[in-house]
Each structure stands twice: as C-alpha cells, then as structure tokens.
C-alpha cells in the first residue's frame, strides 16, 4: 500500500510545514483542483502545487476536477514521478488531455465518478499509468465511503490484468475501511479527512498503516 495525503482539509496557511511534518508517513501529496464547474466547489489552481514543487521531495498526484483538462494541465510544474489525473467525464474524447499530460513528461492518470461505468476505460488502458477510483462524489472532503466502491476496485483490478497501472482510491477512507480497500486491489489510498480532522494527525496516519495491516515505523 501507498498513502497519498489529500491536503484539502489541511491548514493551508502553513501547508508546507504540515506536509513536512507527515512526510515520513506518506508516499504522495494529493492536490484537489476544483473549478466550480465540473464540481460544485472551488479550491485552487496551479499556483499552490507549483509553489511547493521545488520545496518538497514527495511526488505529487494532481487531481483535476475541472472542465477542459487539456487546457489547464500544462500549467502545472511537475516532475517525471508526479501524476496528473483528469476526469474522463470532463474530456470527451480524452485524446487531447492524454497528450497534454504526456507532454509534461510526467505520469498520466484518469479518474471516474462513482457512477461512470468502468468500461469507458477499456480503450485507454494501454495509455494510462494511474486510475483514480472515486469512492465518493467528487467535490468535497470528509464524505462517507460508498461501499459499492469495493466491487468496482475488484472489477478494475481484473480489467487491468498485468498492465503496469496503479489503482488509487479516493474519498471516505479511514481506519475502518482501509484494509478492505487494499484487499480489494488498491495500490494507493488517498486520505484527507481521517488524518486532518483527527486531533493528532500523525497518530491518525500511523493508525491507518496499522489498520491496513502494514505498520510503518
Ligand atoms: C473529493 C476529493 C478527495 C478528498 C479525500 O472530491 O477528491 O481527494 O479530499 O477524501 P477524504 O477527505 O474523504 O479523505
Ligand atoms: Zn481527490
């Protein structure tokens, strides 16, 4: 298992030190970019992750919940090990978004809303590095995990077969369900609220590893 830290519910006024304080317990930093169109919420654009890119060693996964991802993806400063993820529902056809992200020299990911059929991924599988399965409706942190996501993760794992695709799962993950999510086939779990809404975020992160049956440190 790898853990991606979703900073949506972190104290953004001191984000760099918040991330540095958890950096030994996480593997990625997850940025939720929302445009108020594709989802009914507004967060931040490229300026926030770009301002941190050279200051942090952890890889970033940038989750674009925006219309016109091919237009906005090139505005992110990324390293080869970073991932830029667009929503399949926002990019029809997806070719331009795929090419725009590939052109950045980083990894390419696609995400799906909970009700989007997995079959839309079939024609893209050979071009993807990551699939981000949404286990809540995209838009807000701190929502309840949709239990039907477990079957979707299993089905996606079967569909991916032996391809080198990372399966990440995003939304509502905490100590009560992280084991089941990993068991179903997730390589990366994205976690925000269960860490940042806990009284002691470091303890909460340690607890997640323990709950997944993979104690860390
Ligand atoms: C929801 C976002 C998630 C969210 C993480 O639109 O994509 O990344 O912050 O979910 P929680 O806060 O439930 O861990
Ligand atoms: Zn996200």
Explain how this protein is built:
The protein has 8 helices and 8 strands; from the N terminus they run E-H-E-H-E-H-E-H-E-E-H-E-H-E-H-H. The protein has about 220 residues and is α/β, with parallel strands linked by helices. The chain has one domain (about 1-210): TIM Barrel (Alpha-Beta Barrel), CATH 3.20.20.70. The chain has an 8-stranded parallel beta barrel. It is globular, with a radius of gyration of 16 Å. Zinc ion (ZN) binds next to strand 2.
Descriptive key words:
8 helices; binds zinc ion; TIM Barrel; binds D-xylitol-5-phosphate; eight-stranded parallel barrel; 217 residues; alpha/beta
What is the ordering of alpha helices and beta strands?
A: EHEHEHEHEEHEHEHH
Heterogens: D-xylitol-5-phosphate, zinc ion
Parts with pLDDT < 50 across at least 5 consecutive residues: none
Number of separate domains: 1
Mean pLDDT: 97
- Please provide the count of β strands: 8
Strands of the largest sheet, in order across it? 1-2-3-4-5-6-7-8
Going by helix content, strand content and strand pairing, the class is alpha/beta
- Strand content bin: 15-25%
Radius of gyration over C-alpha positions, nearest whole angstrom: 16 Å
Largest sheet: 8 strands, parallel, barrel
What is the CATH H-level superfamily? Aldolase class I
In short:
The protein has 217 residues and is of the alpha/beta class. 27% of the residues lie in helices and 20% in strands. The protein contains 8 helices and 8 strands, in the order βαβαβαβαββαβαβαα.
């Amino acid at each position: 298992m790898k853990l991606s830290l979703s900073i949506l519910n972190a104290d953004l006024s001191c984000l760099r030190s918040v991330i540095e304080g958890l950096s030994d317990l996480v593997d990625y930093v997850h940025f939720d970019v929302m445009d108020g169109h594709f989802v009914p919420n507004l967060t931040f654009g490229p300026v926030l992750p770009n301002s941190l890119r050279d200051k942090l060693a952890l890889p970033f996964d940038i989750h674009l919940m925006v219309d016109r991802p091919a237009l906005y993806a090139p505005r992110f400063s990324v390293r080869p090990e970073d991932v830029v993820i667009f929503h399949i529902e926002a990019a029809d056809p997806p070719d331009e978004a795929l090419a725009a992200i590939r052109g950045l020299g980083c990894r390419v990911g696609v995400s799906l809303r909970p009700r989007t059929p997995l079959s839309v991924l079939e024609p893209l599988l050979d071009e993807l590095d990551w699939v981000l399965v949404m286990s809540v409706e995209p838009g807000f942190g701190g929502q309840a995990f949709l239990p039907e996501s477990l079957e979707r993760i299993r089905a996606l794992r079967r569909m991916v077969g032996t391809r080198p695709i990372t399966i990440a799962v995003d939304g509502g993950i905490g100590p009560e369900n992280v084991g089941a999510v990993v068991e179903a086939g997730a390589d990366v779990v994205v976690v925000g609220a269960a860490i940042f809404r806990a009284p002691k975020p470091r303890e909460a992160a340690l607890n997640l590893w323990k709950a997944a049956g993979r104690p860390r440190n």
